[in-house]
Amino acid sequence: MKLIPYILAALCLITSCISRPDYVLDEDAMVSLLTDVHRSEGLLEVQQDNKTFSNNEDYKKAIIAAVLVKHNVTRAQYDSSLVWYGQNLKYLVKVYNKVQKNIIEEIDYWTNADMGSGSMFDVSQQGDSVDLWTIDKHLV
Q1: Cα angle vertex 102, ends 18, 52, to 5°?
Q2: Torsion from C-alpha of 49, 53, 57, 58, nearest 10 degrees
Q3: Which of 67, 38, 65, 43 minimizes the C-alpha distance to 53?
Q4: What does the pLDDT look like over 13-68, one tens digit per residue?
């Protein structure tokens, strides 16, 4: 009978030290991945007026797939990691605090970017778009 409190204390110590399984992305990788996932979801939110992008589930899946490829993560790793972090809220909150910090820092950077003359942004004007076309331009 005198051993029961010691056994219970040992069980509490063992269960309180949850270790992350090998198949779950580590905290830094998860922060980086989720930052990009939410950045891409934000892009879709901005494109709400464009029905092609915002309402197309295939397009949304393609963007998530591109983010996963960028981070060299499979869909199974992503899903498994989300499940594990969802079951361990202490770690999920820690990850999302860092994701939120990353996104806020990025917003602040672009909000406060010097758009004046001589800056790296000097090459574009308000309303300009980026020309990504790499082939010679000609009219057929």
Answers
A1: 105
A2: 170
A3: 43
A4: 555 556 888 899 999 999 999 999 999 888 877 776 666 555 667 778 888 999 99
